[in-house]
Amino acid sequence: MKKKHMPIGVIITVALLIVITGAYSTWNHMDPAHTCAQCHEIRATHEAWLISAHKDIACTECHGTAISEGIHSLTEKSHMLWSHWTKKIRNEDIRMNEKQVLYVTERCAGCHRSEHAGWLSGGHGATYRNIYLDEKHNQMEKPYADCFRCHGMFYDGTIANMMALEGDASTYYMKDKKQEERPVIPCLACHQIHTESGNTPKTSFYVRAEKKHLRTDHLSRVVMYEGNREVRTSDDPNALLCLQCHSPNAWHHAGSEDDRTPTGVHEGLSCMACHKPHSNETRNSCKECHPALSNCGLDVMTMNTTYVDKSSPYNIHHISCVSCHEESSVK
Asked: Which residues of the chain have pLDDT under 50?
């Protein structure tokens, strides 16, 4: 009885698959200077990565590979190649869309777990539903294009693409239901992945209009006023970052609009003095600077210091000596 042999075509196919798989795996683990950075468009990004805090993290850890997400990533990478050879697109015009930004955010969470958990639990983890379907706020101000400056920096369309704004606030709705559960302030809103390591700040502000990050120590100082008096503000770059969204009115009055610039006894303090960076939590922050009793004998931990309660005389952002004491006693 003749022995059955595997058809030569099957043997060749299997051998080719082994070679291709091995070559592809080797490519993904090689020094990017000899792979990704061979493309002139990627060279500048590779050079930035080399001096960044993530220089020991492989490109594929954040960007994935051509097959890491199955047919989706294969289609995406194929489209990138097609666009490269068929369209006149400059490298600086290529930006990640919102879906890609959220993909990277998931990769951030893989290493920065505590920061991600804090972000999810705090106000900056808000979704499009939380912001754009807030009927009470919509009654005061109808959603418009500039909302994306802080809430939805990476959204790919316009406010008209995203929402139906006919009628009154009670009838507004999101056209794309998937958009409702997406976060409006992902990691890349305040962080640039390839930012330099060392003494440079770890934060950058993403400017939607320019589609670029701006390092927080390069942000312009904002002059603030309490009445006609110029308020002393913090030199912390992170405080400047907060001010980009928690901004005052056109006259730069401290405490106006969404501004939280400290005045009174906390004038000059950075936001980070009281707020945890990712969760924004302030619980027990008073204990960081004050003993059980404050300098004047009051137990600060029992005082209503939140800005949320509009009736509180102890709003932490502008509490002063006369908030607790008669003006004559502090002269």
From this structure: none
